[in-house]
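Quick start: what a row looks like.
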Amino acid sequence: MGVEGREKVKVLEAGALALSGRLGKTVQRLRKAYNLSLSELSEQSGVAKSIISQIERNETNPTLATIWRLAQALDVSIERVLQTTEDEPFLEKATHGDTPILVSDDGKCRLAVIGWIKTVDWLQWYELSADPGGVLESEAHQRGSVESLSVSSGELEVEVGGVIDRAKAGETLRYRCDRPHTIRNVSQAPATAIMVCILKAAAME
């Protein structure tokens, strides 16, 4: 193999390594956006937990079949998972089909993940839709985390640490979410709200 051939191989290897690194970060951000553990993503995708961990740490080059399984489990297109260019113009459009939807245990509340995947480690925001009587129960986030719930329609009740308050359309509730918290639709009509969660915030004493 000549010098040109060797250089071409180096370029291809460098490109594959860069793609793998960005892929790992994307998979990790999407997994965290869904609040999935490695074990849960493994179960849903059929990809071994150890392989997912290696992908996220940029220690392996996954096959296209593996990427496809992860994309299916994370409910995004394979093109979105493979989107890599860091220097492209910052104008991004997410279609309805690209927006992950989380559903509460009772099936009456839906969280559309409208936040930017790249900020999921410290800032998350969602569009909440709740049917009458719907209950969304959440585990505690990192210490110091704060959540803001701005009601667009209907009336929602928030309970955290034994304290309960309500907000109607046009009102906002802010509360510590580093402990278990619950959101309920206490009205007789569907309710909607924008929820913003700030993680790793300064602890509130």
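That is the whole record. The domain at 96-198 is CATH 2.60.120.10 (Jelly Rolls). Helices lie at 3-33, 38-45, 49-56, 64-73, 78-82.
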